[in-house]
Amino acid sequence: MRSWFAIIASLLLVTLAQLLMKSGMSGMPVVSLNWLMVEGNGIAFLQSHLSSLIHVFFGLMCYGLSLGCWMLALKKIPLSVAYPCLSISYVLVTLLAHWVFAEPLSWVVLVGSVLIMLGVSLITYKPAGHRAH
Length: 133
Hints:
Layout (H helix, E strand, L loop, with lengths): L1 H25 L6 H6 L3 H7 L1 H25 L4 H7 L2 H14 L5 H18 L9
Helix pairs in contact: 1-4, 1-6, 5-7, 6-7
Subcellular location: Cell membrane
Keywords: Cell inner membrane, Cell membrane, Lipid A biosynthesis, Lipid biosynthesis, Lipid metabolism, Lipopolysaccharide biosynthesis, Membrane, Transmembrane, Transmembrane helix
Membrane topology: Multi-pass membrane protein
């Protein structure tokens, strides 16, 4: 059962990581080496974009924690079952991006999300009498 909690934690952390990365990168300008040399300097860049950089940093931290949870889950759950569960994060990110960032959400996307969830349910389904992971 702890392995399933590890998968759920990994999914939630990778979802949070995506949202933090989107939030952080949305506040960042397109930067090139030429821009840094001509228009600004590294210190000024850090100061003016600190909030965005913090979001990116915490997004990367969530990715790292997600990886740790994922490795714990793989100790007990077969990869052929665990890996499809990652697609749940596609659904979570899509729905949360609509809510948090006002990204468009169409009926096609909603139907696709339902199909993803049905597919994961079928893959992880264990008939009565089968040993749990």
